[in-house]
């Protein structure tokens, strides 16, 4: 695809113009490339690490990260997806369990051992962040129970924090299926017109006075992925639990109740979380149907 006419087809002056254009274009391209390389580490919140917290014990599914999904451990499937995210400078698995660590090292993952006392994923991420030698501006907590997570969603969560300096937390939501409306394991959220979170609930929000699902309302289902500003992640575990957080049993409410801003990106994603052993067969059937190896 020639940008300028070939010199042989031009007059003498035309060829000079062509050369000038060529040089100008080349110089501009070089300048852009240099600026890109130079600027990237200096941009706002430019360094991001993805952390996959994985613990052995689980309320409904012991050893869940090692469960085989079409022959591959679930944690490996998640990790492989996360490795495809172009916004991450580094990816680690954070675990308290030697078997999980060994398995992860076996397929090439970087592993950080965290204590058994971590109460939940964000605490584990916080401990892992402190054990990482390098500084990162953004930490993305990717739950290991969504083995079909799209790398684009991870990139979107990172970008949301880079573009919204007033937010300390970012997450993703997708269209809620009507059959999940009253499932308390499916967390719903509502956002303002700039995409900042207003509230999360296990109940259906907003609530229609008919008491039924309004087929015309675009309800949002919260997905288990969160991006933190790393400075915020360090203080997050120390913030005392808050009333709404405790009542809904939703950790992210603590962020909102303390007055911090959270950005929610809307994505197209069919959530297939693995919470219980019977979910493995469901996800395998889906992968076969979609020809995912
Ligand atoms: C509630 O849901 C119905 C459909 O089920 C819809 O027509 C109505 O506009 C919704 N909102 C209110 C305030 O009724
Ligand atoms: C999870 O961790 C947060 C932050 O570390 C903590 O405040 C919260 O109480 C924990 N939630 C549960 C359910 O353990």
Note the main attributes of this structure.
two-stranded antiparallel sheet, alpha/beta, 20% strand, single chain, 34% helix, 11 strands, globular, Spore Coat Polysaccharide Biosynthesis Protein SpsA, Chain A
Secondary structure elements and pairings:
Elements: H1 12-39, E1 48-54, E2 68-69, E3 72-73, H2 74-83, E4 90-95, H3 98-106, E5 110-113, H4 121-131, E6 138-142, H5 151-163, E7 167-175, E8 188-191, E9 197-201, E10 220-229, H6 230-235, H7 243-248, H8 253-257, E11 261-266, H9 277-289
Parallel strand pairs: 1-4, 1-6, 4-5, 7-11
Antiparallel strand pairs: 2-3, 6-10, 7-10, 8-9, 8-10
The protein binds 2-acetamido-2-deoxy-beta-D-glucopyranose (2 copies).
Q: What is this entry, summarized?
A:
The chain is of the alpha/beta class and 293 residues long. It has helices spanning 12-39, 74-83, 98-106, 121-131, 151-163, 230-235, 243-248, 253-257, 277-289; strands at 48-54, 68-69, 72-73, 90-95, 110-113, 138-142, 167-175, 188-191, 197-201, 220-229, 261-266.
Detailed description of the structure:
The structure is a single chain. With 293 residues, this protein is of the alpha/beta class. It has two domains: 12-40; 43-289, Spore Coat Polysaccharide Biosynthesis Protein SpsA, Chain A. The chain contains nine helices and eleven strands. It has helices at residues 12-39, 74-83, 98-106, 121-131, 151-163, 230-235, 243-248, 253-257, 277-289, and strands spanning 48-54, 68-69, 72-73, 90-95, 110-113, 138-142, 167-175, 188-191, 197-201, 220-229, 261-266. The strands form two sheets. Strands 1, 4, 5, 6, 7, 8, 9, 10 and 11 form a nine-stranded mixed β-sheet that branches. A two-stranded antiparallel ribbon has the order 2-3. It is globular and about 55 Å long. Mean pLDDT is 86; it is low at 1-41. Bound molecules: 2-acetamido-2-deoxy-beta-D-glucopyranose (2 copies). One 2-acetamido-2-deoxy-beta-D-glucopyranose is lined by residues 208-210, 212, 214.
